[in-house]
Amino acid sequence: MFTAYLTVTVVTIVANAGIAAVDCARARFVLANSAEVGVPQSWLPFLATLKGAGAVGLLLGLLGARFIGLAAATGLVLFFVGAVAAHLRARVYHNIAFPGGYLLLAVASLVLAIAR
User: Fold this and answer.
1) Which of 41, 90, 99, 106 lies deepest, with the highest CB count within 10 Å?
2) Nearest Cα residue to 15 out of 99, 78, 85
3) Domains in the chain, number
4) Which structural domain, as residue segments, surrounds residue 19?
5) Where do the H-state alpha helices sit in the chain?
6) Percentage above 70 pLDDT, the chain
């Protein structure tokens, strides 16, 4: 069980840290997607900070701060539920797999952290 927890959580950390960096860099596809789902560009730094904080919190959970890891996983689940909801509200389905994939990683990290 620990191997699954470790593997899924590390993948979740890398994925969220990576997308947070891309958000901060204001990549063209991030700007286009945010405009398409109705998220103001001014929110991008804050959203990137939340993703980055989630990644750091998961890392701290791996390093022994279990409560912080659980809180980070819960926060990421809520964040990506919001992202999927934004896509549904805007009826943007062609790329909903991206926030959906991040949501699945966050849920898996949370479930495995609880089961640990």
Assistant:
1) 106
2) 99
3) 1
4) 2-115
5) 2-24, 28-37, 44-62, 66-90, 97-115
6) 100
